[in-house]
Amino acid sequence: MLETIVERLQEAGHRLTKPRMAVLQVLETGGEHLSPAEILARGQAIYPALSRATVYRTLELLSELGLLRLIHPGEQRSSVACVAMHHHGHHHLLCIHCGCMIPFEECVVGELEATLSQRLGFEIKGHLLEFYGLCKECRGHQKVEQ
Amino acid sequence: MLETIVERLQEAGHRLTKPRMAVLQVLETGGEHLSPAEILARGQAIYPALSRATVYRTLELLSELGLLRLIHPGEQRSSVACVAMHHHGHHHLLCIHCGCMIPFEECVVGELEATLSQRLGFEIKGHLLEFYGLCKECRGHQKVEQ
DNA sequence: GCATTAATTGAGACTTTGTCTCAATTATAT
DNA sequence: ATATAATTGAGACAAAGTCTCAATTAATGC
Questions:
Q1: pLDDT digits over B52-72, tens only?
Q2: I need a labelling partner for B35 at 20 to 30 A (CA). Which of A3, A49, B84, B105 fits?
Q3: A99 and A125 part of one domain
Q4: B65 shares its domain with B110
Q5: DSSP calls for B60-105
Q6: Splitting chain B (146 residues) into consecutive groups of 10 residues, what average pLDDT does each group show?
Q7: Number of independent structural domains in chain B
Q8: Same domain, yes or no, for B17 and B65?
Q9: A-B C-beta contacts closer than 8 Å
Q10: Cα distance between residue A51 and residue A36, in whole Å
Q11: A65 touching B, CB under 8 A?
């Protein structure tokens, strides 16, 4: 996985620097939902001089290469950066009351993806399917609280 | 449409203030993809004293009532706030190169929504389906540019 | 291994976004 | 009209993200 990314970076003529490698390492081991701030913190554990600017630059670079996709950047409470290295798509439910996030596996976009891709000439690299509403618990509390 | 929202606000015991009405008016006429900053600017054209805090507070309120959903808050280049008043779902393709956004109408989540809702006890109020990749034009340019 | 060179970096200033507090205002019920 | 509690604007604050520039460093060719 990391190897693939490294290859694609080099193919595209980018250098394999230590700060960059630190970010990649964090992304590989950190799961799909890290915020830039978390990536910075974890990255500095590997390469202490790592700067915020470099984290953003690396994320942007990977993004341009289609290896990664930031979702909900800037959002604070919930997880923020979402890595598309692991899967092609991301699926979850978000509670608009407590902010909790429940992932699910079912993917129903395959056919649609092909249709859209063809119709619009779009090269699709990934997707995000997100439902929002009230989770089981908040559904009950809702009326009592307010 | 605006009437519905006004009703739901009052039902829930919230006041119909001028700043709030200004925001609602902007949301009603501004389409589905306004950023909080844009909402503030347009709102101030209607009610000059409108403050940023009030915009955020109103968006949060509407969000809690399930009338609205902010997507990609904090993101700068592309549109940010996404209003769920108009439709139940939002569907678009995002180009990771130029940032353009192409909406589409097809919705394939109905059945899945019912399944998840039942399985997890989640009360689903809306959804976002977003594909990302390269648009027709960027797909061509990509290799030439770099 | 060593020098060259262009890409990359860190630091930190800066901008923008979002949150919070508090005194002043205002919509609503009476 | 008055009382009262919700709502507001201002502005301080915090966090997120961008940008510049001089210093560093990875890759290339020797």
A1: 999 999 999 998 887 887 776
A2: B105
A3: yes
A4: no
A5: HHHHHTTS-EE-STT--SS--EE--SS-SEEEEEEETTT--EEE--
A6: 86 95 92 85 97 95 82 54 64 76 86 93 86 81 45
A7: 2
A8: yes
A9: 139
A10: 11
A11: no
Three-state secondary structure call for residue B42 = helix
Residues of chain A in contact with residue B66, where contact means CB-CB under 8 angstroms, are 96, 133-134
Q: Would you say the C-beta of A50 is within 7 Å of strand C?
A: yes
Domain containing B100 equals 88-146
Looking at residue B5, which CATH number applies to its domain?
1.10.10.10
A39, A64, A86: which is the final residue of a domain? A86
Contact at CB, B116 and A131, closer than 8 angstroms: yes
Residue A10 identity: Q
Pairwise CA distance, residues B94 & B100, whole Å:
6
B54 and B107 both lie in a single domain:
no
Rounded Cα gap, residues B2 and B115, in angstroms: 31
